[in-house]
Design a protein that fits this description.
- The protein is 31% helix and 21% strand.
- It has a 10-stranded mixed β-sheet with strand order 8-9-10-1-11-16-12-15-13-14, with helices on both faces. It has a 4-stranded antiparallel β-sheet with strand order 4-5-7-6, covered by helices on one side. Strands 2-3 form a two-stranded antiparallel sheet.
- By secondary structure, the protein is an alpha+beta fold.
- The chain has 20 helices and 16 strands.
Length: 543
């Protein structure tokens, strides 16, 4: 029987004092459920933080499902705050000790202990037998799973991308752990709050029949647990009332995959959806002009970039890549497609680097100079052969329109760019020797140039793991950035890396800082974080 508020009041009126509600219902009270329209839920049909390293993953994973020892202050300055660990201290420049929060429950009812933390950074869960790599690239073909329980081939390399020198985690006692690094690392605390370093239940992993089974319903400590996941369709999270941070304010959060912008907007306006994500700026007036709706927006710590592939024999010439960087009028893109609501950053840098004195002052993206671009192409001996541009249909906001504008700018400088539309990331990376350029984005995960410069373009960044590009000097400097405790040396090394990656031997070129526009029902009184992540914990839900 459906017990409505009117029915309940009627029962009280008929027999005052005789109705006793179930204890669980009394404790919970009425809670709202919401539906969120997104363009994509997961790129690889798993909910594993190490396998699904993406912007769309950030939205559904954090901070509602996956949690780490140190959390990111999603609704504040994006800095570190206590999470599953209440405090931490450095024992030396290679060792970090953390005290676990006692009484934290996993979604299966188990208490979080040091055993789960040790497991979450183990060979079985993450590293696949790899040791500290020190600048050596790890390729997926070296880790082909032999059983259904083994990790996907890409995970060990992804693990060493963020934890290049971790030797292991020691359980000092039930609620104390120590992280032991093979080298000094000033960013250990930051690595613990980054995308990937979240904790899972060891028992849940052990009991899963296969990796695929576990990865579609991981057991974590978040405010919401996975109730139902239908790849390419929907993901439903349900309130976990034993959450250490307090009772979750929502009963359910349902993410539905709606690839087309118009369908997301129409569903929001009709009331089918409570939120519509990834709106382009040209839809802001439509949504905000509708009674009862509003748009939450902000620039975020993520830059849109174009990435080059030197396996293409034309693009292998750095003069061609340099020409492509100078043929782009970034200001025109920001004004035409973003209404001036985002900015052109100082290369692959974020303002937060200034807090640790790692921001390289005076650096800028390559200037818009089509004459220089044409001269560089002449020096390269470019004959006008086609350069394939692999493009997804609006995985990123305004992606297709941006790709079309870029193509025209490149053509105006004398480049024969040929757009080839692809359906997914697998198809993007399948064109090893054909693809000349593709789209990507780069996020700041640690408030240090380790991310995204080393994390995405260093020896174990995806660009090098996919053999799109490599540079020996940049790889040596990556190790300096990862291991040195000399701030001046680290900043000098980072400055040189910018010169290599953006000027001399370009692997990418920055387009603009990213921005997120989310349409929503105004009555919800919810605030968007300056990130892809959507916070639905009690501290950000005020209906």
């Amino acid at each position: 029987m459906l017990v409505t508020r009117r029915h309940t009041l009627g029962l009280f009126g008929a027999a005052a004092g005789t109705l006793i509600l179930p204890r669980r219902l009394m404790a919970q009270g009425a809670r709202r459920s919401i539906t969120i329209a997104v363009q994509k839920i997961s790129n690889n049909n798993t909910l594993d933080i190490w396998h699904e390293q993406s912007n769309v993953g950030e939205r559904v994973f954090f901070p509602n499902l996956w949690e780490g020892l140190i959390l990111r202050d999603w609704m504040g300055d994006q800095g570190p705050v206590p999470g599953l660990a209440t405090d931490w201290k450095r024992l030396d420049d290679r060792t970090l000790e953390l005290s676990l929060r006692q009484g934290v429950k996993f979604h299966n009812g188990d208490e979080l202990t040091a055993e789960d933390v040790v497991f979450s950074f183990s060979d079985e869960r993450l590293f696949g037998g790899t040791g500290p790599v020190g600048g050596e690239t790890i390729y997926a073909e070296n880790f082909k799973p032999q059983t259904a329980k083994e990790l996907p081939a890409s995970v060990p390399g992804t693990g060493r991308r963020l934890w290049p020198a971790l030797r292991g985690v020691e359980a000092v006692d039930k609620y104390t752990v120590r992280f032991h690094n093979a080298t000094p690392d000033v960013t250990l605390e930051g690595r613990l709050m980054a995308y990937g370093s979240q904790i899972t239940s060891k028992r849940a992993w052990d009991e899963a029949a296969s990796y695929a089974e576990w990865a579609r319903k991981p057991i974590t400590t978040g405010a919401y647990a996975v109730e139902d996941y239908r790849p390419d369709v929907s993901l439903t999270l349900v309130a976990f009332d034993d959450y250490w941070g307090g009772r979750p304010p929502l009963e359910r959060i349902r993410f539905v995959e709606v690839p087309e912008v118009a369908s997301r907007v129409n569903g929001l306006m009709s009331g089918e959806y409570d939120f519509a994500c990834d709106l382009p700026p040209d839809q802001i007036a439509t949504v905000s002009g509708t009674p009862g709706l509003e748009v939450q927006s902000s620039t975020i710590w993520n830059h849109r970039v174009s990435v080059f592939n030197v396996q293409n024999e034309i693009v292998a010439n750095p003069l061609v890549r340099r020409a492509m960087t100078h043929a782009i009028d970034r200001k025109a893109i920001v004004e035409a497609l973003w209404g001036g609501q985002t900015v052109i950053p100082a290369g692959l840098q974020f303002d937060s680097y200034a807090a640790s004195d790692m921001f390289v002052e005076g650096w800028a993206v390559p200037d818009y100079n089509p004459e220089l671009a044409r001269d560089l192409l002449k020096q390269a001996g470019y004959k006008g052969d086609a350069i394939p541009y692999f493009l997804l249909n609006n995985y990123y906001t305004n992606q297709t329109a941006t790709g079309q504008i870029l193509t025209e700018m490149w053509r105006a400088a004398g480049l024969n760019i040929e757009i080839q539309m692809k359906e997914n990331w697998s198809q993007i990376f399948a064109g090893e020797g054909t693809r000349g350029v593709r789209d990507w984005s780069a996020s700041n995960l640690i408030n240090d140039p380790i991310t995204p410069m080393v994390n995405q373009f260093g020896p174990n960044g995806q660009a090098q793991q996919m053999r799109e590009w490599a540079n020996d000097e940049l790889n040596r400097l990556s190790v300096v950035l990862e291991t040195s405790t000399d701030r001046a040396l680290r900043r000098k090394s980072f400055a040189r890396m910018l010169e290599i990656a953006e000027r001399e031997d370009p692997v990418y070129t920055i387009l603009h800082q990213n921005a997120v526009f989310t349409g929503m029902k105004s009555e919800l009184n919810w605030k968007a974080a300056p990130a892809f992540a959507m916070d639905f914990r009690a501290t950000n839900w005020n209906v």
